[in-house]
Amino acid sequence: MDPLSQITILSLEQATVLPYLTFRLVQDGVQVIRLEHPIFGDPNRMVGDNVLQEERMFSYFMAINAGKKALTLNLGGPEGQQILKDLIVKLKVDIFATNQLPRNYAKLGIDYEILKAVKPDLIWLGITGFGPDSNEAAYDPILQARGGLMELTGEADGEPQVLGIPLPDMGASEHAYGLLMKALFRRQATGQGSRIDLSMFESTVSWLTVPITLSRSFGKKITRRGNTHEFFAPVSVYPTADGYVYVAGGNDKQWNALTQLPGFETLAQERYRKNAGRIAEVKNLNQEISAITRKFGSAELISLFNQIGVPISEIHSIDQVAEDPLVVKNLLKAKDPKSGLGITLAPPPNMTEYLKSKGGQLSFPPRFGEHNEAIYGQVLGLGPDQINEMKEKGII
Asked: Distance between CA 289 and CA 248 in Å, rounded?
């Protein structure tokens, strides 16, 4: 049995950054229990299309919440905070995670020191926009703007653009995943728990490896360049007779092979022989290449370039990506036992042993408070009357 299947994480989560992290952990077999406020819940439950025609189960929420269990719990008072402590002990929680603002930690009874007193080997994770000393709210586009990603995205003479995916959210999730694995290893070796504070802003800026080094060390201005590359050519989108392709030539050897293809011989010019020359005249170069590529169909160009080892691809739609033979076999699935609705989920970064054992099937994204009766009843031993009383008081 995979050791990760023995791990339990209790996650006070909402939006994207923490739910995506726990979705990744679900794929390892980790038992994920998400906590939500009994009135407000996760706002993302109400985003997208109401595909089930019921509250708090909209389409956007479904993308990264399959395989989890869901509890509601009001941590604003002593009763809810005591229940949280009881859950941590009775569920033998290994990891507690939250993406609440730091000012809420003590108020909600979720501060590391408070929970560590309950379970000394607990691994505690707090994901914030700008670190544990800042209560500034942050959504992904704000982090893209402040973190330089928008400055690097878009046409050279156009306005800054956001990325097509929420990299600050998902990038921070991946960084948190690695930190949790390190903390679990440390606990296994020493028996000690950990406090992990992860700033989404710091996570975002850490991706700026080349831009910061070249800017701060050598005074080079790094900014958006559209589809071209700062250091390599030809790298861009080129028109074909029936669409577009992206070509990424990485060295002079590949360029030389390209100029020997039928129809491309006119590019065999001395000024383009070295990469530096191609970069210096990249605008003219791309115009000359485009005049040639538009005479070929995309499939023909891809066949020609593959023969000489020059990377090339069509610009695929999301549906085309999902139908790629390397993708379709790893798409995850979930089916709602109540309505019969089946959904398709993005594939994992790698197909884990747990997912293989499940045939790529995860439990359907949980409804709001779906597991209240099961966990509060079976794990905490509360009877139906007690659970109903907690509901009436607004605790769950």
From this structure: 13
